[in-house]
Amino acid sequence: MNIRNTLWTLAWLSVPLALSAEEPASEPAKPLTLANAVALSLAGNPALAAYNYDLRASEAQRIRAGYFPNPGVGLEVENLPGSGSRSGADTTETTLRLSQVIELGGKRSRRIAEARLTGSLAAWDYETRRLDVLADTTQRFIEVMAAQERLALTEEATMLTQAELSAVAERVKAARNSVVEQRRAEIAVARAKLDHAQAQHALLSARKSLTASWGNETPAFTVARANFFNTRRPEAFGSLMARIGSNPDLARFAIEARLRDAQLRLARTRGVPDVTLTAGIRQFADENEWAGVFGVAVPLPFFDRGQADLYEALRLQGKTEALGRAIRVALAVQLFATYQELLYSVTELETMAKEILPAAQEVLKATEEGYRQGRFSYLELADARRSLIELRTQNIEAAFNYHKYQAEIDRLIGTAALAPLDPEPPAKSKN
Q: What is the mean pLDDT of the chain?
């Protein structure tokens, strides 16, 4: 199955796991692939799991918005014992009232609509975070792959310098070279070993950073597997630009615009006074009789007619529209810049593979043979070896950049199909 389709399927199938994740996910015993890493992150990322509480809170807000106003109960006692003819309790009147606010202007329905849209925004925020986790996991996986390639290159560089040292030692023993060249070769071996040690530490850090994506503090996997140098020509920029609307950072503004509109309509209803109905019974103590009472109360909107709420809603609506346009422009600029970097990475990798690396390899081979025959000095041999190692290091960085830019573009267009890293690489070739 294509790795991009695999990641898309894993992304959605793993959402329920992410919502209930409490413990770090278990890493597979076999070599870790990008698909494994993505599934683990979606199932166990602590920050992603935390967003589930926002979704639940928004559901509670929707339920609360549908409640009717609570009824009220009141007890009123009049003509309490006073002075003169009112000194007794037989003139007391006791009234028990029940009251209910009747909302007018469609307040409840518009309040529910606002709460539902707020919940939709929370869902988009979760989607944004989910894609952030996907992109971040992919980035960290790429860093592990690059660290592995750098470590392998330092091992090869160490072997090359050791072979050079052996060749120099033979020539020194035969009095064909000075001891100074042997010391230079020994220094080169020591430096290669230092580079190797540094690469080992960098790989350990990269592995730990990757496993933190799914909440593990101590990495269990030892090897990440992917075809690190697998590249392809990117699709046309116009096609990518047409899909930028899928970016949740931008797509959520369509929901937010609807939310602002709902808030504006709700603000308009606040200018419509609600009616409070009261009903109850009254007891007359002097005659021991009962009678019903009924009342209607309507606030007079002399001062607060909801104009401040309406003004605020209008301004927030304008702000949302402006932010939506600004984010779209910013995303388009970022997409274009990243796309150009991606194109250069592809060109660089192709040129390295077809022209530069084969030529550098031939130069080193010819220089090694010439050194044995005495036609080249050790400095020329060391320079050829150093040049090849530097070019291969540059090739690793170009592959790292390629996958990084590809992942960034996928995040910008809002897809879960990330870097095209095959789970099973073909036979290893020279990079």
A: 83
